[in-house]
Target: Helix-turn-helix transcriptional regulator
Amino acid sequence: MYQRIRDLREDKDLTQTQIADYLNCSQRIYSNYERGDIDIPTEILIRLANFHQTSTDYLLNRTNQKKPYPAR
Model:
């Protein structure tokens, strides 16, 4: 999961600080998320999925389908 989050960020040429600002957390906390040093809270996981326009299942390695699920 953590590698996917990093890869998505790097694909957009964004820094950890830029993503951390979007998530309203520090760069250090976000870095810990990417390294897997701390668990990502559900709220943050959802915000990351929305930001990267993918599903939480993709971020959690439950699917290889990047495309988000259709809205109900």
